[in-house]
Write a structure and sequence with these properties.
Blueprint lengths: L1 E7 L3 H12 L1 H8 L2 E8 L3 E4 L6 H11 L9 E3 L3 H7 L4 E4 L11 H10 L3 E4 L2 H17 L4 E2 L10 H8 L5 E7 L2 H13 L3 H10 L8 H4 L2 H15 L10 E2 L7 H9 L2 E9 L4 E9 L10 E8 L4 E7 L3 H17 L1
Parallel strand pairs: 1-2, 1-5, 5-6, 6-7, 9-11
Antiparallel strand pairs: 2-3, 3-4, 8-10, 8-12, 10-11, 12-13
Length: 338
């Protein structure tokens, strides 16, 4: 069975997904009798379109060499927009990985809604549309009878949403708390261990590919706040948006001396997000060094408090395009199996 896919956005996460998909093509054919074909890739400069399927390695090569897939030989289209591709190119699944926009969710929000309107299943890693219009997107997926998968928007490779939805089905989740931004956690870890400045830690994170050129979303707590909103909606059935956040405080004011003082008392400082039945908060907090949530480096740690299972803690890698893409591949397999 052929499975036609459109890629909307081809930055780090989009390229990571194509890399993972290319690596698993044979697995998908043998295990599920499915032949995935990426028939279009869209980035900010244009698109590459081939209804027979693009060569994924060539697409990656062109993007890295030219900066846009619009120069893909014979298939590139400079200046073509994402909405034009959604209108002109038939597909079964749209994978949306455009840049996070916390102001209005665009262009990802329009891409997702248009894909659903055309009867296409959607997989996204984009936090902006989910943090601003979760209910609208969920209602649209039900209206048009398509699946909407967004696990990759929270936690990198850490399967927070799928854990709650599949393994804790009979539980009421009363609160979600933890470290949800691997970049800020990496920065605080380096500052604590190496006694280096935040600027130096940010530069190291950028060299490692776990921090964007502009780290503001991470260090200001905005990324964590988006994820808290998504979790509150997805696994706690709250109807909230980013605008309902009661406090969003990042790590930009944390100094090495603050970390040293915390260590003297048997603590360290972590950026913690919290959602319960009445609160939505993000702030740096002192955490005991022996606390299960006290993980270092680019790890995430999330505690789900439930009525039956009590407390469940999950730890995993929270950053990296391939790690995030692994969760998107899981979503693709979910769609195939259903």
């Amino acid at each position: 069975m052929d499975l036609r896919m459109i890629m909307m956005g081809f930055g780090n996460v989009g390229q990571g997904f194509v890399t993972v998909l290319n690596f698993r093509l044979n697995f998908l054919r043998v295990r599920f009798n499915v032949r995935p074909r990426v028939v279009a890739i869209v980035d900010s400069e244009g698109a590459a379109v081939n209804r027979a399927g693009l060569d994924l390695e060539k697409a990656l090569w062109v993007k890295r060499l030219k900066g846009t897939v619009a120069f893909y030989p014979r298939c590139g289209r400079l200046g073509v927009t994402g909405l034009e591709v959604l209108e002109d190119v038939d597909a079964d699944v749209v994978v949306e990985t455009t840049i996070t926009n916390i102001v209005d969710g665009e262009p990802g929000l329009s891409f997702i809604l248009e894909a659903m309107r055309r009867g296409r299943h959607v997989i996204t890693s984009n936090k902006g549309p989910l943090a601003l219009a979760f209910s609208k997107l969920r209602d649209a997926s039900m209206k048009y009878g398509v699946q909407f998968k967004f696990d990759a928007a929270v936690g990198g490779a850490t399967p927070v949403i799928s854990l709650a939805e599949r393994c804790l089905k009979g539980n009421e989740i009363e609160s979600v708390e933890g470290i949800l931004n691997a970049t800020s956690n990496f920065i605080l870890t380096r500052m604590s261990r190496e006694l280096c400045s935040m600027e130096k830690a940010v530069e190291e994170a950028q060299r490692m590919g776990i921090c964007e050129r502009n780290p503001a979303l991470d260090i200001k707590g905005i990324d964590t706040a988006c994820k808290i909103v998504i979790l509150a909606n997805a696994i706690m059935n709250r109807n909230v948006t980013y605008r309902d956040m009661q406090k969003v405080e990042g790590i930009e004011n944390i100094k090495v001396k603050d970390l040293i003082e915390a260590q003297k008392r048997g603590f360290t400082i972590k950026l913690i997000g919290l959602a319960d039945k009445s609160r939505l908060l993000v702030q740096p907090l002192p955490i005991p060094l022996n606390n299960p949530l006290c993980v270092d480096g680019a790890l995430n740690a999330v505690k789900l408090k439930t009525d039956l299972a009590k407390e469940v803690i999950i730890i995993g890698r929270g950053a990296g395009p391939v790690e995030t893409a692994s969760k998107m591949l899981n979503n693709l397999i979910d769609i195939i199996e259903s």
